[in-house]
Amino acid sequence: MTQQSESNEQMEQSLIDIAVESWRFSRLFGKVVSKLDAGESGRYINQLRYFQKKVEENLDSNGLKLVNVEGQPYDAGMAASALNLGDFGPDDVLLVDQMLEPIIMGPNGLRKQGTVMLRKVEA
To answer: Strand 94-101 to strand 114-120: parallel, antiparallel, or no bridges (unpaired)?
Structure first.
């Protein structure tokens, strides 16, 4: 690997790390804002959307994309590891209840696997 490609790889990894931490921070900030009264929360929600948009634009300009699979049916082939998969039986129908870390895709496929929590679909 050349020094240039190592440097590019390191820059991409740094951008991915910042994107994951931004994801976590956005989720936490959103929970805090939801506890404010409606009149107060509007301004903060707009700032959060702007922040998330800037993160997505910078990822996009580097060929990267955050993928959120919350609410989607869980599939063992999904690019995410499920922390609580052992809590369910083999015949349970599962949904992604919560993303703890987003999936990050690049122009050549998966760049970072996500982390999820699952829940059983009640019949």
So the answer is: antiparallel
Three-state helix/strand/coil letters over the chain:
CCHHHHHHHHHHHHHHHHHHHHHHHHHHHHHHHHCCCHHHHHHHHHHHHHHHHHHHHHHHCCCCEEECCCCCECCCCCCEEECCHHHCCCCCCEEEEEEEECEEEECCEEEECEEEEEEECCC
Give per-residue pLDDT as tens, 42-80.
Answer: 889 999 999 999 999 999 999 999 999 999 999 989 999
Q: Phi/psi class of residue 11: alpha, beta or left (left: φ > 0; alpha: ψ in -120 to 50)?
A: alpha
Give this prediction's pTM: 0.84
